Amino acid sequence: MRRPRDIDVSFGGVPARHRVCSAVVRSLSALLTLVAALGLSSMGCVQKPTMKLRGADIAGFQIGFPVVYVNMVAIMDVTNPNSYDVAVRRVRGQVVFANRHGLPVDFQAQGNGLWLPSKQTTRIGVPISIPVQMGWMLLNEAMAAPVIPFRFQGKADVTGTRTFQLEKDDYSLDETGVITRQQLVGALPGAI
Q: Of 20, 7, 86, 27, nearest to 51 (Cα)?
C-alpha cells in the first residue's frame, strides 16, 4: 500500500510534486534576487565612477559631403570606487566644448558591456567623430587659453555586478572636464 505522500496526482500532465518543486524553486530564485538587490543597496551609497581624459589619438578620417570628420579615440581613465564591478552598456548625450560647440555622443559597447572592475582604474578608448572645422575652432580658442572646458550631459545604461546582472537604464550623467592645448594639437592633423 502506498503512503499518501508518495501518490502522484497529475494535473495538466505535470505531477503535483513537480508543480510544487518548481513553485519552490521560483520562490527561492525571487528571494535570492531580492536579497542580492538589498545587499547591493546596503553596501552603502553607490558611488559614480570618475573619469579623467588622458589624451586622444587619430583613428582616421571620414569624408562626407559637405563635412570632413576626424575620427578620434579619446583615451580615458575610469575609476570604479564601488565594491562591485560595473558594466557600461551604452552612453548617449551631448558634449559641449568651450560652452558653445556641441557634439552628439552615442557609444554602444560590444557584448554585455565594458566592465569596470571594483576599486580599480580602467583605461578605455571612446570613439568620437569631430568635424574638422570644429577642431580648428577649438584649436584657435586653445591658443588663447591653456585648456578648453567641456561638459557632457546625457544618459548611460549600466549593469551592476557580474553575478546578478542588475541593470539600470537612463542613469543620468553630468560631467565636466578640460582638454589641454597639447592634447588638442596632438589630435588634429597638421596642427602647429
A: 86
Do 12 and 92 sit in the same domain of this protein? no
**Residue 177, all three cell numbers:** 572636464
In sequence order, what are the beta bridge partners of 57? Answer: 73
Same structural domain, 60 and 150:
yes
Which residues, listed in sequence order, are joined to residue 179 by a DSSP beta bridge? 148
Encode pLDDT of 8-60 as tens digits.
333 344 444 444 444 444 444 444 443 444 344 444 566 778 878 777 777 77
Long-range CB pairs of 54-63, under 8 A, 24+ apart, other chains included: 54/123, 55/183, 55/186, 55/187, 56/128, 56/179, 56/183, 56/184, 56/186, 56/187, 57/125, 57/187, 58/187, 58/189, 59/127, 61/189, 62/129
User: Is the same domain home to 59 and 124?
Assistant: yes
Same-domain check for residues 19 and 113: no
The structure's pTM equals 0.64
Answer whether residue 139 shows pLDDT above 60: yes
